[in-house]
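# step 3/5: fold
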Amino acid sequence: MKKLLVFSLLALCLFSCKKENEKLRIFTCGIRHESNTFSTLPTSEANFTIARGADALKDQEWVKVAEKEGVELIPSLHAYAWPGGVVERTIFEKYKNEILEDLKKAGTLDGIYLDMHGALHVEGYDDAQATFIKEIRDIVGDKVMISGSFDLHGNLSPDFVKDINILTGYRTAPHRDGAETKARAMSLLIKSLKKGLKPHIETVIIPILIPGEKGITEVEPLHSIYAQIPEVAKKEGLMDASIFVGYAWADLPRSAMRVFVVANDAKHAESAKVEARNLAQQIWDKRADMKLDVPSGSIDEMIALANKSEKKTVFISDSGDNTTAGAPGDNPQVLDALLKNKTKKALFAGIVDADFLSQCAALGVGKEINSTIGGKEDKTFGYALPIKGKIEFLSPGSIMKTDRGAAVIDVDGVKLVVMKARRSFVKKVDFEEVKLNPLDYKIVVVKLGYLYPELRDLAPEHLMALTSGFCNLEMTSLPFKNVDLKSYPLDANREWSAK
């Protein structure tokens, strides 16, 4: 009996030592997309950028975290598409099945890292994200820990959250901490595995539906509330906290603001719940203060305001056709208004029209073009606008063959950038590629809502044009059917408490 006990203890020691010396094995994958259910432009395979295997690990901060900790990464498919309409079912299933097959072949795993956005919606699915993670769980069981990083504009349902162990979201909007958030998700996963933690997530869903432009973390009231997150995460028994503004242009039951607090284990669930409720209540109490942080109004009002401004350059956002939130980007309404107002020294960057760009390429620099532009994808709000102008720039042939092909046309004093594929001007390099300096112009129009960090830091002044489109900023004007219709501001008199 004594020999048996000694043998058992020795075996246990050898097993423990082996486990301690073995590398942790973490599988990585992701299908990242922000899906606008109002947009009539579906997101197809052509819209996705794919990284597989070792390519998915290049130049990633979360990979450096894993390498530093001696972790073995088993990378699968990482898919990303620019925000757009609902994802086509066939491509989602193709990517999902590839990941699941890789997972089955991955061998024994300790953890899984999900590189996600959180607002993915797929044709024919009630909740594709929940389906995705459930099928992962069906393969690996409950003992493998799953951690995920998300955009704070994600909409994570209870069905999704019940199958994930750790989740963390961006803490900045405009986003400045994407790489940091992904690294944190990996770090928390490794820490939990090495310390034998059993993470527990507490969630509070807040019945608020606001666009990201009213959920900016650099201004009040959210600035002070988000500033509390690091301190909450440091409290005894807790590891992380996240506030999700949510994605408002998704007419789905899961669209709402949320607070998540992750505890080390279920023993600290009550502490996590208290902190989550506290943050949620603060947000609810300040709901009426979450407003646009820049002057806003009709495009004609914003053009007039910009012309009166003492600032040398004024940026105007064409918010309804915001391609970074899923709009098609080919609505010419603001260009139309600039021309009707006889605006000079203005830059419109830009509009998507591959056919018009082809016409420009055929004519060449220095030639005049007389054609119509816009309304080819967005047939709900867009229309074909007749324009006549001089072609001043064409991308070099090597660039023109890619989705970054562009032309610059002078139309009655307005510099118009025409793009081959849907994207937005969000960085200085976007202007530099077409040989333009935005600060050379009095008015610069971009198809954005809030300005992305580089432009936000660059712009002397910023105005928001409340234009029509699939990203309309007035929530009460959108044809919602499936969201909680009692959410604020759809129901301005809604009563609610996080307690």
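# step 4/5: annotate
The radius of gyration is 25 Å.
# step 5/5: archive (pending)
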